[in-house]
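Structure ticket #2291
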Amino acid sequence: MTDPFYPPRHLYYDGKIQTASGPVFRSFDPSTAQPLADIHQASHSDVDSAIESAQRAFASWSKTPPVQRARILLKAVQILRDRNDEIARTETQDTGKPFSETSTVDVVTGADVLEFFANLVAGGGLNGETVQLREDAWVYTQKEALGVCAGIGAWNYPIQIEAGVPPGVFNIINGSGQIGAYLTSHPAIAKVSFTGQVSTGAKVASSAAGGMKYVTMELGGKSPLVILPDAEVEKAVDGAMMANFFSTGQVCTNGTRVFVPSQMKAEFEKTLLAKMEFVRPGDLMDPNTNFGPLVSAMHYEKVLGYIKQGMEVDGAKLLYGGPEKPKSIAGMEDGYWIKPTIFTDCKDTMKITREEIFGPVLTILPYDSVDEAVARANATPLGLAAGVFTRDLNMAHQVVAKLEAGITWVNTWGESPAEMSVGGWKQSGVGVENGKRGLEAWVRNKSTLVDMSGTVPTVFAKL
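Resolution: structure written out below.
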């Protein structure tokens, strides 16, 4: 095995790189399975030190005028945009996403989110409200910072950057689930934001609840894409492919349950198969490549297991793909590559249609009536996303209103701009991110009633 070509990665807190005192794990290039870097994990004492640096910074940073904080965010935006390709290359090597994706989506959207919130905050987004109760009494509210917050991010969209904030305001610690558990239960943490799978999110939420901490959870999904009988087949197929094969299916909002009218199924499958040649695995830096490997050996084995489950146990019909690796990956056969896979004639009881796979596995479920499709789409404990394809916008709104999901799309799939507040229903999450409502999740409200009448109402007066 060759040596990693990135220097060892340590921690960042109190405004500088800090040597970690925990164990080391090795990161690999998913396309080749060759080592990338040794990641040094934090110990409990490292976590304590990082939190202490944040506590020291909180008093002054929380009182810094919004416009001044916005300037720093905008500086970070410019750094991201200036270094877009450099950061994207590293992201491609680390996650296995094609450069055509990381250079046009990952870094770009990270900058867009920072820019949105910088402008929102500078424009009064943190202002409170004033309510006149009567001529001599009024109420005003203030939005105050929560305190030290912990964000446990996902590997698939990890863009973070420090751009001139005081030491302790922005900190990064690496670690396993054990370190995550210590962090979320730490008494000095006021809020935990977590993005990841449902089972881990439940543990994080339980740990945070013990300390009455604020939480935001964006968890997994098994999202339905409902194609209505009047939909244009080609556009519906394009949407289904984006909902399943973008980022090699490693997106929590994937529309993996594709409900197709029985009378449309044959044409839908024919069109879908014809377009599968446009899924192009290969050299990740080639601008024509649009499909990469899975992120790790462990995840490769998990997704492979689901494909075999669909073929050998569930009894679904394999329409495309399967357990073999793609043919167009010469020299990268050791990487965690898998074919985009399509099953058809699927049933709601199958494991591949019930459990989140987090890989490029599309399941086609025929239906006979729209009411039936909606009922089956909602028959899941998850509720992250859903979508509808149709030419009838009135029908689209009616169906979307019935779908039990926090993020919904009509005649498209996957776009999640900074302006759009997103969050899951049911077991798919708690709270929202992005948009104006997303900002509310990071502040606490203080309400003050002022009485200027010069008297104090009381029931304890002389009769």
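Closing remark: The chain has 13 helices and 20 strands.
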